[in-house]
């Protein structure tokens, strides 16, 4: 609601992947992503995905510096997504702390999805959307949700797959196409590792994902915007310094043509 980052569509080739399971390939993961723009660190995402009873909870603490009216401003955001065992969303909350605080809550339990926005000017805005139960949530600047999208892809046998997606901060539905670009060897923590390469495409964007053998997201790359998110090979002990950050500009956002 105050900054934007990235969009994903994934397509895959069944000949390069083992037969995907009908349930998520993994249900637990946690770690850090380092957010890079033009080769410079602009922020971090600390995330955790874990079982909560029969459901899954995926949450994060994201910190970065963004440009507001030409001035650098620090932001902290807290996305929290609850999904069922088939990775269908049940609830989603997002809050932002900083110079322009705001939040939203989304409920998928009814026939229509309901979302309540608490805007930066203190107003409340309630909306409803007709979304399929298996809609993919890909919110602005939330990297772990790309990993969940890859898990959704792995649940259906092979081929190019198209998903209905929704960006809560933008109140924007659309479609994503996912394709498999094969297996590639990349460096992770200074070591070479063979990863699955998935491509997420929309009419307006291409985002590349690399995942390890356990379907854990290692790298996100939007080359057209020189944006990269890298999994940290060791636990980060401190936040990035000002010298390590660059201003995150508005055009780094999930983008697709609405339905």
Give a written overview of the molecule.
This protein has 259 residues and is mostly beta strands. The chain has one domain. It contains 1 helix and 15 strands. Strands 8-7-6-5-4-3-2-1-15-14-13-12-11-10-9 form a 15-stranded mixed β-sheet, covered by helices on one side. A hairpin with a 2-residue loop joins β2 (40-52) and β3 (55-68). The protein is globular and about 50 Å long. 37% of the residues are buried. Residues 1-5, 7-21 and 240-259 have low confidence and may be disordered.
Count up the helices: 1
Strand line-up across the major sheet: 8-7-6-5-4-3-2-1-15-14-13-12-11-10-9
Which structural class fits the helix and strand makeup?
mainly beta
Radius of gyration (Å) = 17 Å
Q: Given the C-alpha coordinates, what overall shape results?
A: globular
Low-confidence stretches: 1-5, 7-21, 240-259
Number of beta-strand segments: 15
- Average pLDDT number: 83
In whole angstroms, how far apart are the ends?
21 Å
What's the helical proportion of residues?
A: under 10%
Q: What brief labels describe this structure?
A:
single chain, 259 residues, mainly beta, 15-stranded mixed sheet, 1 helix, globular
Any chance you could write out the topology, listing elements then pairs?
Layout: E1 29-37, E2 40-52, E3 55-68, E4 71-83, E5 89-98, E6 102-107, E7 113-118, E8 124-129, E9 136-137, H1 144-154, E10 161-167, E11 172-188, E12 191-201, E13 206-211, E14 217-222, E15 227-231
Parallel strand pairs: 9-10
Antiparallel strand pairs: 1-2, 1-15, 2-3, 3-4, 4-5, 5-6, 6-7, 7-8, 10-11, 11-12, 12-13, 13-14, 14-15
